[in-house]
Specification:
Elements (H helix, E strand, L loop, with lengths): L12 H10 L1 E5 L4 E3 L7 E7 L2 E6 L5 E7 L4 E2 L1 H5 L8 E4 L3 E7 H10 L1 H27 L2 H17 L5 E3 L3 H7 L4 H13 L3 E4 L2 E4 L2 H9 L3
Antiparallel strand pairs: 1-8, 2-7, 3-6, 3-8, 4-5, 4-7, 9-11, 10-11
Helix pairs in contact: 3-4, 5-7, 5-8, 6-7
Bound molecules: adenosine-3',5'-cyclic-monophosphate.
Adenosine-3',5'-cyclic-monophosphate binds next to strand 5 and helix 2.
Length: about 220
């Protein structure tokens, strides 16, 4: 089955074919770093397989996991959009992964020829602004329980697809940093969910055993 890339949705079939033909297939091993925060970047990656962690250094000097991306997602577009820009995050392979990469030079050539590519880059920025303002709203106005539960719902989708049970292969530290809280608080919320038979806590992973109940719990905060 071919991966459908959200980023390429607005392109015509011809434009999409041309763009994919310019890409270079790359393979990464689990724990390999695909790019470092602060480094100059000149490659856009489309994720074909595997899951990748988006990490940043916090103002207090910790490394926080912000997000997990997987097949059909893209990363690296931000540093490409401005010539001097540095990578805004470190991207690490959570498991073996494959991407299709496109260099700045290739993208520049495609931009000059295909109008859909220019539109695609604008759409990407609009999407980033929407995502970031959503995150700010959540961080400012949702209680911590809601943030943790909503993150779990999202991660269950990424790790479990349509399956009724989702095994999220992340630590409680990762979940805590994605929800903007401490491990102690995240653990307390997870234990309450465990008491309600919604999740099971295992070493280095969180198993969502009742996704329907988890979604219902997330909806109680609307
Ligand atoms: N909060 C985030 N959620 C998802 N992806 C992100 C986030 N922050 C940065 N990225 C991606 O990580 C990439 C790191 O390199 P770039 O800054 O070029 O482009 C960045 C985005 O594609």
């Amino acid at each position: 089955m071919t991966t459908e890339f959200a980023l390429l949705r607005g392109l015509s079939d011809g434009e999409r074919r041309q763009l994919l033909a310019s890409c270079t297939p790359r393979r990464f091993k689990r724990r390999e770093i695909l790019c470092h925060e602060g480094d100059p970047g000149d490659t856009l990656h489309l994720v074909v397989s595997g899951l990748l962690l988006i990490r940043v250094a916090t103002p207090l000097g910790y490394t926080a996991t912000l997000s997990v991306i997987g097949p059909g997602d893209a990363f690296g577009e931000l540093a490409l959009l401005s010539p001097e820009a540095k990578r805004t995050a470190t991207v690490e392979a959570a498991e073996n992964a494959e991407t299709l990469s496109l260099s700045r030079a290739q993208l520049t050539a495609l931009r000059a020829t295909y109008p859909g590519v220019e539109r695609m880059l604008t759409d990407t920025l609009v999407e980033q602004v929407r995502r970031l303002s959503g995150m700010v709203l959540e961080a400012l106005y949702l209680p911590v329980e809601a943030r943790v539960v909503r993150r779990l719902v999202n991660l269950a989708r990424i790790y479990g697809g349509p399956a009724p049970i989702a095994e999220i292969r992340l630590t409680q530290d990762d979940l805590a940093s994605m929800a903007g809280t401490t491990r102690v608080t995240a653990n307390k919320i997870l234990r309450e969910l465990e008491d309600r038979s919604i999740v099971e806590l295992r070493r280095g992973r969180i198993v969502v055993t009742d996704r329907r109940a988890l979604v219902a719990a997330a909806n109680t905060y609307h």
